[in-house]
Amino acid sequence: MPTTVCTAKASCKKLPGLLELTDTHLQWTQDGKKAPSIRVAYAEASSLFCSKEGAAQVRLKLSLVGDDAGHNFTFTSPVAVTEREKFKQELTSIISRNRRTSELLPRPHVPPVNATSSIPFSSAPSPATVNAKPPPGSTRPPISRATSVASDRRETPVITGGDPASEFRLRKKVLLSNPELGALHRDLVMSGQITEAEFWDGREHLILAQAASESQKKGKPGQLVDPRPEAVEGGEIRIRITPQLVHDIFDEYPIVAKAYSDNVPSKLSEEQFWKRYFQSKLFNAHRASIRSSAAQHVVKDDPIFDKYLEKDDDELEPRRQRDEHVEVFVDLAATMEDHEETGNEKDVTMRAGRQKAALPLIRKFNEHSERLLNSALGEIPPAKRRRLDPGEDVYSQIEIDDLHDPEASNGIILEMQGRERYFEGRMDSSPQAAKPKLDPSLVFQDARSNLESWGTRLTHLKIERKHGDAALGDMTQNVASRLDVRSKKNDIPDGLFRQMTTCQTAANEFLRQFWLAIYPPLGELQTAASATPAQRATKAAKMIGYISKTHEKVYALVKTAEQHGIDATRVENALKPVLHASDQAITFYHNKIPNK
Amino acid sequence: MKFFIDNLPIIFPYDRIYPEQYAYMCDLKRTLDATGHCVLEMPSGTGKTVSLLSLIVSYQQFFPTRRKLVYCSRTVPEIEKALTELKRLMNYRVSCAETDEQREKEKNFMGLGLTSRKNLCIHPDVAKEKKGKVVDARCRDLTSSSVCEKGRANPGSVDLCDWHENLGKMDPGTLIPPGIWTLADVLQYGRDKGVCPYFAVRRMMPFVDIIIYSFHYLLDPKVAEQVSKEMSKDAIVVFDEAHNIDNVCIESLSIDLTRPMMDAAGRSVTKLSEKVEEIKTSDVAKLQDEYAKLVEGLQESIIDQNDTDGFMGNPLLPDDLLNEAIPGNIRKAEHFIAFLKRFVEYIKTRMRVLHVVAETPLSFLQHLKDITYIERRPLRFCAERLQSLIRTLDLHRLDEYASLQKVASFATLVATYEKGFLLILEPFETDNATVPNPVFHFTCLDPSLAIKPVFERFSSVVITSGTISPLDINAFLPLVITRGSDQVAISSRFEVRNDPAVVRNFGSILIEYSKIVPDGIVAFFPSYLYMESIVAAWNDMGILNEVWKHKLIFVETPDANETSIALENYRRACDNGRGAVLLSVARGKVSEGIDFDHNYGRAVIMFGVPYQYTESRILKARLEYLRDAYRIRESEFLGFDAMRNAAQCVGRVLRGKTDWGLMIFADKRFARADKRAKLPRWINQYITETASNLSTDMAITLSKLFMRTISQNPNENQTGISLWTVEDIEKAQSKQRELALNTERQQEDDDYGDGGISDNALMDFDLDV
After folding, report:
1. Which pLDDT value is given to residue A147?
2. Residue A435 lies inside a defined structural domain of this protein
3. What residues in B contact A342, CB-CB < 8 Å?
4. Is A248 domain-assigned?
5. Residue A328: which of B80, B222, B550 has the nearest Cβ?
6. Which residue from A574, A582, A580 is spatially nearest to A557, judged by alpha carbons?
7. Which residue range is the domain that position B376 belongs to?
8. Under 8 Å between Cβ of B56 and B762
9. What digits encode the pLDDT tens for the residues B721-742?
10. CB contact under 8 A, B16 and A403
11. Is residue A208 domain-shared with residue A239, that is, in the same domain?
């Protein structure tokens, strides 16, 4: 059972229950139920909202990564506020930790600028103020390096090939995003039992993955640039302006960029510019909504911005005609012009472009998608693109791949050394392998005599009941024991359980290190970490030292269990596999040493 | 691979063949042997075009008669695809040829595609024109025989088209070397050689083995008269992708007149009369000459005409053309102009009426006669007479006379056809519009009229299309979603389609699928009106913002070129990164002729049932006609029509049996028992009772499961089962022979020819013992 950091009575969706924060998850269990119905891993939490001080209900809302709806909890106990504060404190630090790990492109957060008020717009953003407590322990530099085995490794290896500082940052990120690994790291490396280098030995892929995901360039966000005003009390609206938003607006609407360069700062101050832009018809035309009527009352005539107004792009033909040639397989215009239009016009529902208000919107979508695509793939004229694309063979679009015989391809010729020898060898062995010639009549007779009196023999055939019964018994027992386990309450106290877990993971880590030293992975990426045989031997010896202590540790645990009045055999059983594995390693080690 | 059907050697340009393809080819061959017409269907995405071409080319190359193939498709992309397919096939045949002689024969096989001047013009100025009509007119001004005559006699006096002139210097019959030429190839050839691709193709048509063009070039009399007149009777005619052929048939005999058109026609009449006055002073002999010819009934027949002169075909079907002299009262140019003026004024007056009128052609003619004294007979010759006058006056920029030509066609049609046609005058666009925008519809109700001449003229007509039928590998998961996760039923039914709950539920289907489906998702709406309003609503609800997080969004627009660019970008997005969503319309531009196979369409969503707009008066008239003439119930036709269109939309995402994807039908009506019966068999077969009535969340769960299993099942080798090698074909053939032999033998056994009781009857006899 994981440790509980804090608990409180809280209802969710009007159902009473218990909210718990463990060291890995936030979970909520409905009253009367055993299993938690909501379980949120730390890494999933993205933001937190609380009801105001003194509100009738003490509420807390947690949004998840990729799910803004999240979960709502209402604290129900009399001391709701203090409980809520406790959760809030804990969750805030978790979330800020998440933020820091997830934010690959740290974008500065700018405090909202009230567009209608007189707070000046600042182009220099104040840096993000994420109030985050550094997670305990992780920021401390690993102290272990100086201890016991510092001599056998030159330095903590730099896996990604970058500088040690960034390497360190990567490792930290991996540990933060993976609490279980972080705990192990704390237990073993911080306590100096194994070195940092040893710890990462065999876990290089985690760091590489982290480095890869960090180096992946994040593209532009897909959404349309559509600053939605927030209503503020007093009938004012406000729009947050961030440098990113400004950049996006300029990118999406070059006309605004032009207006900006024409007018700022000669005619308008920066602040005035944005204030007036957001009230102008131009902004209204740029909004990705056809329900502009709602904003109508704030839209004012503006001599400066109205100059930049363009006619709505709502004609059947787009305002911006593009005469680039499209590929003939998708050329719809060619069909329209293939023959004179005939027949009656389409009914009203089938005439495209009758919803005039939707047309600018639809065009905006297509253009926006194209812009995103070009920003990711590079803007190349289509004709050139087609030429560059190697897969774009004329036939590739019509061919049916299934109908090609995959085996028809010319195989790779096997180049064999000493071919003659191989065949000679086979020739030598072939006479021996040849079976003695069989006389058909003899074989037939033999078979016949074998078949004689098969009937009587069949009656003698008896299938032993024993095996069947045994199998059935086994199965029943299996089911029974599983049922047993499930029905039993897990009453091992928290502290002990945690000790057991620690003992188990630590032993596993030692075992891993040990086997790694004995059998270094083949073909692994040869980093600076690859050790010499001598180093490996020392390491193995050291690890065996740790491993041989497992028995003592387990014994201690068993004793503690007895003190708590818990069936000691259960603890023993739980740790039996670890002991077994340790014994295996120890025997192996002792057998091996004399051999050398 | 090479194999035989009966004695016909077939070259099929792949190593394997689907059993469906083999069966299709066998059926096709029987049709050709029997010289009759047939309708052939084949499961979508199993390579219908290649099977068809492979068999017919084998047939053409094997028999000495060399029947020509006229292959019709619906859209230019499909024409180009068929040409590419043919080119690939011929390359394969050349590489397979066993002797030099054979190779030479394969190399001499010729196939071309024909489309409009607009699509084939390479004249730097003319090609820039946006409208096909303008390209046609300007081309004619540079190439008509009278202009050419002038220009050649006196170089520099008039502009000529160099590309067309160069063509004239070449030997007829060798304008394009043998081989298969796609439209792109022909354009490039024209540019390289400095010759006109359009006329090169037109003039090579008598020499080709295969010509590929659109339905209209054979079905629309106005075009067919000019382009397809010389096709020989033994040609094999194929209509591919013919599931909507009835619409093309109806379109080719229907016509609309609007107010702006009538105004333009009026102006053209005035311009014509000015021209006549002008020519009376300058070259009166011309008019007299025309009159004399008309008196004698010597109309220039199209055959005598140069192919550069033709501009407006007669709108009538070949059988309905009259071989009579033009009536006396419109022979004189000024009389005809007065006649036209009166007719135009009459139509304009009719258009001022503010209530809907539906009448038969006969009643229209009666009223016309009562008011204007215009008789039916001269009206019938209206189009023909106008052609003659335009030719006599040697007019330029014919596109300016387009409206008048349309009015003349209208006159001729209305005076010729009675049964199966209706006139509908609609003063307002919609029922609640207040500003009149009158349209006079002349509408054909009977699709069989236009196709009948084709059936009569050609000995083998094959109508073929893809059906969605269960493939033996179930790589497609059809699902019917009837309600959202909130259990609110979803439907595109008119009464509920704009209900926010329905709109939101449709939206959440899109969001959820954009989260889980890789690459491309295509969504179809029942109409443009609905798509445009729902896209706007989705945007306001923030639904599209959710979709943007996972995929790019592209939407079909009214402009074809704009949509093509969006399509190209959509494909790019599917080839790279997380893919995109394409919103488009069933029966719309995109749904016909664009394929979304493999990563271009991993899921296709039908939002609603694509019923036609039942309030449309033209549709109502057509339904009534179908009921009266063919005893087809309205609801039955509407249901069938909606389902064939839905099936076409989802069918665009299939190609090959290892392609996989999801097909989502989002409308509760798809699950209703009576509607279920109208669904293609494969839905009923594959949709279990539970999968036909899903909520969004259930469907998502099933879809995820399906995608997980499909990705774990890399194409097992299906050779011998759903993929045949030559040996498999032979096995199947010998099996069939055996079967045939057995039945024959059985028949022999059964029947001794003595009229006695057969063995079977004896065995079946229920003896009471």
Report:
1. 35
2. no
3. 216, 220, 222, 251-252, 254-255
4. yes
5. B80
6. A574
7. 255-416
8. no
9. 778 888 889 898 899 888 888 8
10. yes
11. no
In chain B the first and final C-alpha atoms are separated, in Å, by: 60
Which three-class secondary structure string do you get for B710-721?
HHCCCCCCCECC
Going by C-alpha positions, the residue among A280, A48, A204 that lies closest to residue A524 is A204
- Looking at the structure, tell me whether residues A496 and A586 fall in a common domain: yes
Which one-letter amino acid corresponds to residue B558? P
Q: Do B528 and A350 touch (CB under 8 A)?
A: yes
* CA-closest candidate to residue B729, choices B13, B9, B18, B14: B18
A17 and A49 together in one domain = yes
- What is the 3 state secondary structure string of B252-318? CCCEEEEHHHHHHHHHHHHHHHHHHHHHHHHCHHHHHHHHHHHHHCCCCCHHHCCCCCCCCCCCCCH
Chain B contact for A294 (CB, 8 A cutoff) = no
Q: What is the pLDDT of residues B576-617, one digit of tens each?
A: 878 999 999 999 999 987 989 889 999 999 999 999 999 999
Measured between alpha carbons, how far is residue A315 from residues A368, B436, B588 in Å?
19, 20, 18
Task: Kindly state whether residue A556 falls inside one of the protein's structural domains.
Answer: yes
Strand B580-585 versus strand B521-525 pairing type: parallel
- Check whether B164 has a pLDDT greater than 50: yes
Q: Would an 8 Å CB–CB cutoff place B322 in contact with chain A?
A: no
Task: Dump pLDDT digits (tens) for B704-721.
Answer: 988 888 866 555 566 777
pLDDT at residue A397 greater than cutoff 70: yes
Q: Which two tokens stand for residue A43?
A: 């890494």
Tell me, what's the pLDDT at A132? 38
In sequence order, the β-bridge partners of residue A495 are none
Q: Are residues B652 and B731 in the same domain?
A: no
Q: What is the largest CA-CA distance in chain A?
A: 116
Tokens of A279: 């009230």
Residue B635 CA to residue B622 CA, distance in Å, equals 12
Instruction: Specify whether the CB–CB gap between A25 and A6 falls below 8 A.
Output: no
- Supply the pLDDT for residue A126: 38
Question: Within 10 Å of residue A159's Cβ, how many Cβ atoms?
Answer: 22
Residue range B452-502, pLDDT digits in tens: 999 999 999 999 988 766 555 557 788 889 999 999 999 999 889 889 999
Does B658 map to a domain? yes
Q: How far apart are CA B339 and CA B382, in angstroms?
A: 9
Q: Are strands B476-483 and B661-666 parallel, antiparallel or unpaired?
A: parallel
Inspect the interface and report whether the beta carbons of A349 and B255 lie closer than 8 Å.
no
Name the closest residue on chain B to residue A288, using Cα atoms: B539
Q: Is the ipTM of this complex over 0.85?
A: yes
CB A149 within 8 A of CB A517: no
CB B122 within 8 A of CB B196: yes
- Element containing residue B118 per DSSP (H, E): helix B117-120
Q: A156 or A357: which carries more pLDDT confidence? A: A357
Q: Could you tell me the residue range of the domain that residue A246 belongs to?
A: 235-308
Residue where one domain finishes, among candidates A215, A246, A263: A215
Exposure string over B464-493, b if 16+ CB within 10 A, otherwise e = bbbbbbbbebebbbbbbbbbbbeebbbbbb
| DSSP E strands, A125-253 | 230-232, 236-238
Residues B333, B335, B341, B343: what is their CA dihedral angle, to the nearest 10 degrees? -120
Q: Looking at the 3D structure of chain B, how many domains does it have?
A: 3
CATH of the domain at B501: 3.40.50.300
By CA distance, what is B600's nearest residue in A? A397
Against a cut of 0.80, is the pTM above it? no
Please tell me whether residues B657 and B555 are part of one structural domain. yes
Q: Which of A329, A330, A334 sits opposite B115 (nearest CB)?
A: A334
User: What residue type is A186 in one-letter code?
Assistant: R
* Residue A282: inside a domain: yes
Which CATH number characterizes residue A36's domain? Answer: 2.30.29.30
Residue A249 sits in the same domain as residue A289: yes
**Domains in chain A, number:** 4
